[in-house]
Amino acid sequence: MVKICCIGAGYVGGPTMAVIALKCPKIEVVVVDISVPRINAWNSDQLPIYEPGLEDVVKQCRGKNLFFSTDVEKHVSEADIVFVSVNTPTKTRGLGAGKAADLTYWESAARMIADVSKSDKIVVEKSTVPVKTAEAIEKILTHNSKGINFQILSNPEFLAEGTAIKDLFKPDRVLIGGRETPEGFKAVKALKDVYAHWVPEENIITTNLWSAELSKLAANAFLAQRISSVNAMSALCEATGADVSQVSYAVGTDSRIGPKFLNASVGFGGSCFQKDILNLVYICECNGLPEVAEYWKQVIKINDYQKNRFVNRVVASMFNTVANKKVAILGFAFKKDTGDTRETPAIDVCKGLLGDKAQLSIYDPQVTEDQIQRDLTMNKFDWDHPLHLQPMSPSTVKQVSVVWDAYKATKDAHAVCILTEWDEFKTLDFQKIYDNMQKPAFIFDGRNVINLDKLREIGFIVYSIGKPLDAWLKDMPAVA
Ligand code: NAI
Q1: pLDDT tens digits for 193-213?
Q2: Which of 39, 90, 185, 190 has the fewest Cβ atoms nearer than 10 Å?
Q3: Is the dihedral of CA 178, 67, 157, 280 positive or negative?
Q4: What is this structure's pTM?
């Protein structure tokens, strides 16, 4: 029986391995992690991450051919294929601080694999890493190999949170990069055979190592670029009276462009886009390509601009101050159908409003109070380290209360900001919300989910990104 071990039981390692176990009943899959609470949660009824369909998959194979364990060394030493899916945060100090990927966790995983291995292994990069990481890892492994043969493969993960199980069941493509040597080809084939249990062969792309590593960074940069492009257009729409939804529909129907990832919003978030683009920028700079670096940096700058613009719009509309005013925040996760708050635009928007002394009442169906308080007090990039290495929430932000109901959050509020596109926000009783708010009552929709006309009829002053402005807002321009 082929044995797979995956180091890192996070948003990628957990769901990916659960699907491999489900689709390959004859393969034993063990997911290991240094975080005891995380592994305990994977072994309980309350999984550590929320992802539609995940619980069902885990329940079908946990205890049969899917296991979660903290005994990292034992399972690595027994495995034929070792996936590495650990954190790869942005460096906060030293060379490349603020841009380069911090490979501390990856390197320590590689050294451990070298130390405990007693048989040949295929080591698979699942984490997103800088180009040429495989070469460094290869050096660590082969210098300690005691005659053991290690083949390194790059198999970047393209799942999107919120649709991870759907994406894993039917991936657009699986990408496997390996050395172009007979041993390399053999290793690529072994991994291909795993995916071939459920992915059609034509959807499994094989490349050299560096192409696979760079393709992942490039794919995220292209996706984020589309969001920044449409967000840049949204500012121009507001200035001219065009409607960004109409513009993006008209643009997206061009089959060369396509309709996906063209929704204007308060900005992109998630653990990957910013980190991976910063990483790409750093790689360009290191390779003497400052113009290319500058080009990609602009994608992040527009994202920051969009978040600032939203905050300025809120403050400017409300007579240039939100001091001591209750502002309801609906949605804190970086997108719907996930509880993940890593790099969510809600953090910057909330911090901006708190900077103007607002009182925030936050509701998100999947995010806990503890997580929100941690996010609002944590330093930049601290979130991307294993849980037990993150600073404990040292203090709480007193102007923030977290509630479990949208109606409670909006009661007596001066304004509502919608920051995540949760479906349930579309069906709220906005008349009831309006009746219980201070007047004038404002709604700032950062995700374009509400029906503008209906809300205006009720009496709200409404702002929706990239849409023609209310007369009220026109008189109160907000320049970022
Ligand atoms: P995560 O933070 O949820 O999980 C990483 C896990 O690795 C943590 O549970 C941590 O405790 C564990 N870990 C760290 N060092 C370890 C070690 N030496 N031994 C054992 N366990 C260790 O991170 P996530 O989101 O799963 O991301 C992992 C990688 O996958 C990152 O490189 C990320 O860029 C990439 N990725 C993430 C995607 C996403 O949607 N979250 C999508 C595609 C790629």
Answers
A1: 999 999 999 999 999 999 999
A2: 185
A3: negative
A4: 0.94
